[in-house]
Fold this sequence. Notes:
The structure holds two protein chains of two kinds. Chain A is an all-beta fold. Chain A is built from no helices and eleven strands. In chain A, the strands form two sheets. In chain A, strands 2, 4, 5, 6, 9, 10 and 11 form a seven-stranded mixed β-sheet that branches. Chain A has a four-stranded antiparallel β-sheet with strand order 1-3-8-7, with no helix packed on it. In chain A, strand 9 and strand 10 form a beta hairpin. Chain B is built from no helices and eleven strands. Chain B is mainly β. In chain B, a hairpin with a 6-residue loop joins strand 4 and strand 5. In chain B, the strands form two sheets. In chain B, strands 2, 4, 5, 9, 10 and 11 form a six-stranded mixed β-sheet that branches. The chains are: A mainly beta, B mainly beta. The interface between A and B is medium-sized, with 27 and 27 residues.
Amino acid sequence: ETGVTQSPTHLIKTRGQQVTLRCSSQSGHNTVSWYQQALGQGPQFIFQYYREEENGRGNFPPRFSGLQFPNYSSELNVNALELDDSALYLCASSLEGGITEAFFGQGTRLTVV
Amino acid sequence: GENVEQHPSTLSVQEGDSAVIKCTYSDSASNYFPWYKQELGKRPQLIIDIRSNMDKRQGQRVTVLLNKTVKHLSLQIAATQPGDSAVYFCAEGDSSYKLIFGSGTRLLVRP
């Protein structure tokens, strides 16, 4: 059984640029959620994808968008980067069919300068 | 709105003592409450969870209590070890699978 993997692990971008972060879900999991974790804070829910459809969204602007592919891997795209977007971005995969454990990836550390 | 308050923000205990972390959640529809441990630079890892049909659950050296009436959660770590030093997060979840996290407790276990 493979775990949740994210790429890249670290990224530096300039304000105004666009970024794409990637996540491979754990084998057998069809639900992927994305979280933003600012330094010293708890993770904040961005959105969730279930079977390639967005299944809920947190309080993030439309410049945060995502995709889920038929193999259940996922991308998080952020346009028009702002300095406050600097954070650790975590994806978590989980099983369908009720509330079950969310398995987190190791995260992508994004720095916007 | 959805909110999870967690305290204390930092906790220092002597090795072998117990550590207790408390959370208060706001959404009465929440029915899943996981606790995650996050070591520096690493991913959050589930240490124990509890569902709303239970009021207590025990694992290895960890106990979680749930009081749905007052929307309180607590995590007790018994016989703490230096390896328990990390940031601990409580969270609440509902049928949408979205998790709302507390702000974290930094636990330091002094040898």
